[in-house]
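User: Here's a chain of 622 residues. Predict its fold as tokens.
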Amino acid sequence: MTKTSLLAIALALAPLSSLAAGPRPELQPSARFSVYGHGAAATPPMGWNPWNAFRTEVTQDKILSVAETIKRNGMQKAGYRYVNIDDGWWLQRRADGGIQIRTTMFPMAASRSGPPSLRPWTDHLHAMGFKAGLYTDVGRNACSQAHDAHSPNLPVGTVAQREIGLEGFEASDLATMFGEWGFDYIKVDACGLADFGEGSKALASATYREGRPLIVRADAQATDADKVETAYARVGRLLAGLNPDDDFVLSICPWGEAGVGNWGGRHGNLWRTSADIEPNWDSMLHNFDTASRRELYAGPGRWNDPDMLAVGLGEFDARHPVEARTHFSMWAILAAPLLVGFDLNHASPAQVAMLTNPEVIAINQDAAGNQGRIVFHEGDVQVLVKPLAQRGERGVLLLNRGNRAVQARVDAAQMQLDPGEPMQVRDAWAGRDLATSGAVLEFDLPAHGSMLLKVRGKPASGDATALGDISGRIHVAVDGLSGYSARPAEVSGTPRVDATPAGQPLRIAGTTYARGIGIHADSRLEVKTAGEFSRFQALAGVDDAAAASGGTVQFRVYGDGRLLFTSPALARGQAPVPINVDVRGVQVLELVAEAAPEAGSAAASASRASTPVVAWAHADLR
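Assistant: Prediction complete.
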């Protein structure tokens, strides 16, 4: 099979057939929902981080002042519970291996006996009703040492004393931070793995130990993704062991590099999909784009993180209310973490009202944990739909990315609602119901404007539950790809809901299917059914977008590791094969699609170094 061959699989209503074939090792069923499964991030974390406001010029008084403001202005009650410390809190690595706290910045940490401790700090925040967050780096050194050379608050001392990152001290540092000091949240950056190599700005500005970069920014081939994943996996394992009550959050921050979009959910609770956000429209759009097509990688306890909110800064400050509201709406529909990053002591009443809007926050915090997915994109207009926990309810964002006013529309079919049934439509920002008629909603949007709705109707899947409506319960265990880039132009190969990975409608043997999951062949999906369903029904086939001589695909369905269905080898143009299997009591359903080169073709003897693009579509649970 050629490297450019395109396939797509669709599933929609079906019976049982059998064809025995041993799966490749990575396609063997796991019989488990193999995500991280630890921590306190059932919904996207909400809170405040001082970096964008103060960088390393942060102090105990500055943070406490903001915390008191959050408590007083209603933001804490609205859900903003994490108050974090970012880079700059450390003085040096002590001779005994511990980290000396910069007590001039955090005098509360000073102790009359023994080394300084941040326990009084966390105790104080806990007494205020907050959770406490801290910052570190997975390498030897931190980002401020690489990029803030003129900061007065960089670690001091010898080369060894200035190595305040986790590398070599993972177990002891994390035991101190979570066991002794009582922190609840940790952001683990990755500059220590990226920015201290030969010729780096860091080595030019100061004396640090040179290290071969494991992350070469924007160069997936030169990056050692396996070693980066291993480093974060160790952090995740240690944190799980140190927190038997699971009351913690692990934020993984290699900025979309090293394939973190694929493995972040196996080792932590949220992972950065992009470089740091800048307070301008283009940067915000870029960061949004790095996460917006990755709806199958998010769910309760695991979130795509396009970085902190830039609300309150630059092009999203009080002078730009339209941009600020749209930015907040975009993070809400993505189920992205909501971490505010400006000095809230200077927030206007309008800004506080925006950040505490209960109906907008409810869309972000919806218990189902589904990320909104793109259902329309043409020109400057995008429409995203987020299935909510209440059956038939959707969060819907109509977005104008451009600099001119536009008209945007969304119809019932795009929302996976029955167009013949009435819909109830509510403006989430205004908190009021809208009068509607028919199956189409239309709105005039100003430049950079948006409309965020809550829509209720009858699901298009009828009494069945479409897999696309429970994307938060799907884990892409194997996607058939060999890498990930945070650049938006390169994310079209990721699995998608209701479309092929390239964003095309699912189409098998001339018939278009409205709902489903697009993915590559040589893939395995885990679905957390949790014993709540009785049947899985679908149609399996190869998408018409595949090459005419693109070989065949076999589909298998497993329930808790037990083979429930095997299809014959299917090729492009063949009618889909129906599936209808009993899944009563099944905790984890697994969908496997394995590609085989066309018999007798030159590709038949070639290695499977590249896999064709495929899709699963119209799959329902009952």
